[in-house]
Amino acid sequence: MNAEAQRKLIFTPEEANLRLPLVQAIVKDIVALYQNLHDRQERITEIKRLPGASTRDEDSVYSEELLQAEVDIENDMEQLKGYINELIELGVELEDPALGVVNFPSLRKGKEIYLCWKSGEEEVAHWHTLDEGFSERQVLFEDSLNLDNKDLDEPLI
C-alpha cells in the first residue's frame, strides 16, 4: 500500500454512498462467510463434547473429520481477512461482521465521526461518534446529504 493509500480517507455522505455498491458486495460476502464459520465452529465444539471425540485421541471416531473441519475453517478465516482488507483498502472500517455494519470516517463540525451503514439499508444515512457504536447512531439530516465537498472541516451534519 503506498503512502497516499495509507492516509485515512474522510468521506462526505455523498462519497460514502458512491462507494456503497462495492461495499455492499463485500459486506454480503463477509456476513455469509462469518455466519457459516460461526455455525461450523459451533458444530466442532459439539462434536468435541461427544463421547470418544477427545482431541488428544488421534484414533477418535471423529479425529479425521475434526482435523479437516479445522483446516477448512482456517482457510475460510483467511478469506474473511481478505474481505476485511478489501474494505480497509476502500477506507471503510468493519464494525460488526454478523450484522454487516461498516463505518466511513467523516467529519462533523471539525470532529471525527463515523458515517454508519448496515447491510440491507439503501444508503449511508446514519452517523455516530468514534466512541459510540451502531446502537447509538443517529440519522443524518436530509440536507446534509447534498453538501459541497470543498471544505471537509465544515460541518457535514
How would you describe this structure in keywords?
157 residues, alpha+beta, five-stranded antiparallel sheet, disordered N terminus, disordered C terminus
Summarize the biggest pleated sheet.
5 strands, antiparallel
Element pattern in H and E: HHHEEEEE
SS field, number of helical segments = 3
Q: From the alpha-carbon coordinates, what is the Rg to the nearest angstrom?
A: 20 Å
Large-scale geometry: elongated
| Major β-sheet strand ordering | 1-2-3-4-5
E-strand count: 5
Runs with pLDDT <50, length 5+? 1-6, 143-157
Structural classification: alpha+beta
Percentage of residues in strands: 15-25%
Assign a percent range to the helix content.
40-55%
Note the gap between the termini: 31 Å
Q: Any overview of this molecule?
A:
There is one protein chain. This protein has 157 residues and is an alpha+beta fold. Strand 1 and strand 2 form a beta hairpin. It has a five-stranded antiparallel sheet with strand order 1-2-3-4-5. It has a domain of 73 residues. The N terminus and C terminus are likely disordered. 43% of the residues lie in helices and 17% in strands.
Give the topology, please.
Elements: H1 3-6, H2 13-49, H3 63-89, E1 93-96, E2 101-108, E3 111-118, E4 126-129, E5 138-139
Antiparallel strand pairs: 1-2, 2-3, 3-4, 4-5
Short summary:
By secondary structure, this protein is an alpha+beta fold.
